[in-house]
Structure formats: structure tokens, C-alpha cells
Amino acid sequence: MKSIWMEENNTTQEISSTHLEIGLHEVSKLMKTHSDFIPGAFEKIASKIEMQQTENVINRFFELLSPKDYDKVLISCGIEMELLDAIAEKFKHVVVIPNDPDVNFARIADNYATHKHFKVMRPTAAADLVCPDTIILVPVYPLEDDTLLAYNYPCKLITKDARSSSFGIYALAMCKPLEIRYEYEFSGLSKVLTPINPNYISKFSTY
Fold first, then answer.
1. What pLDDT shows up at residue 9?
2. Which of 42, 120, 148, 155 has its CA 20 to 30 A from that of 191?
3. pLDDT tens digits, residue range 178-199?
């Protein structure tokens, strides 16, 4: 995954499908570590994450769960690679909706080929699985005005019906609140992230 990102980073400064296949959080960390120049969208996130805090982010999600919850189907509305790695180790059944419809679904699935019950699905297909035995996880990027941003493509599943039909929708902040106004945001984040209704969130873990 990292080699794919490094190749892509040499040719573009915008958010691409390759970046989205890995997740904005992971790419921002990689750029912060390996790049002399960080494009605006990634710089904004990189300035609001701590390089050694990813494990804490993951643990905060697990703190929202009870031991019996790991038997439920986890539907992840978006990919943050390190978070997904940890989820795949804990849950018996994982469904992931990628961050963008143009990413390589097969390559993502191949990364977890040893997981017997790991599926990569489109939002409409995943919606058919939502029931009281499913937990929906949505990685979010909070703003200073308390707006919660999630990836455009998978957040189509974050609805009133999904909230009432699922065991719960859990939001996990991937960074400290970003210093941007969504309506006047020009770095590129507003092209791939969109506000979600906080009323649909069952539990929320801050950064």
C-alpha cells in the first residue's frame, strides 16, 4: 500500500483514488513523515494528528464495545487502513465500504484474504445487511464548529433507517477538530468529505 501511495504522490498534489484507497488519516501521516511538501488537504489533517496516537484512536473505538459485540457484523463506512487492520483482527464478520467508488475493490479484499468473512461492498449492497446484529462504524473528521465530516461515498449508509435498524452507528474522530469552514473550504477536503447528521450517531469517540 505504501509503495502505491509513494508512486502516486510523485504525480499529483490532489486527493486521488489511490489516497482514498488507504484513507486520509494514513496518507497524512505518511506525507508528514516522508514529504517535503504536503498538499493543503493533507496538511490540514496532518496538523491535527499526533504521529503516535493511532493506537489510541483504535483503542477508543474498542472501548465503546462489549466482548459480545465482536460477534456482530461490523460495517465500516470508510477505510482508514490501520483502523481496518485492527477491526479485521477483532471481528468475525467485517463489511467495508471504500472511501470512493473508483478504488480497487479487489485489491482491498486481497489484503484481507485470510479473513474468512471479510467483504468489500457498495453502500447499496451493504444497506441490505443492516439489522439489529450489525454495528456501523463511521470514521469522521470533526470541525471546530462541531460539524462531523465523513467520506462522501460510504456515508450514504448513515441514515435514519440505518440508525433505527442497526445495533448502533458509532462515530470515531480521526483527528482533532479541523480549522476550516466547510462552506468556504478550498483545500480539496470538501470534494471527498461531507457533513453527516449527528442525530444518527449512537456513540461518538473524540480524538
1. 43
2. 120
3. 988 777 776 789 889 999 999 9
Domain locations in the chain as residue ranges: 2-46, 54-205
Rounded to whole angstroms, the Cα distance separating 51 from 32 reads 9
Residue ranges for the chain with pLDDT beneath 70: 1-13, 186
One-letter amino acid at 183 equals E
Q: What is the full DSSP assignment across 130-196? A: -STTEEEEEEEEEBTTS-EEEETTGGGG-SHHHHHHSSEEEEEE-SSPBS--GGG--SSHHHHEEE-
In this prediction the pTM is: 0.90
Pair 144, 176: CB distance under 8 Å: no
What is the per-residue pLDDT for 138?
Answer: 98
What helix, strand, coil percent values describe the chain, rounded to 5?
A: 45, 20, 40
Q: For residue 149, give the amino acid letter.
A: L
Cβ neighbourhood burial of 206 (10 Å; 0-12, 13-18, 19+)? exposed
In one-letter notation, the amino acid at residue 72 is: K
As a whole number of Å, the end-to-end CA separation of the chain is 25
Return all residues near 67 (Cβ < 8 A) that are at least 6 apart. Answer: none
How is domain 54-205 classified at the architecture level of CATH? 3-Layer(aba) Sandwich (3.40)
CB 158 within 8 A of CB 194: no
Q: How far apart are CA 38 and CA 111, in angstroms?
A: 27
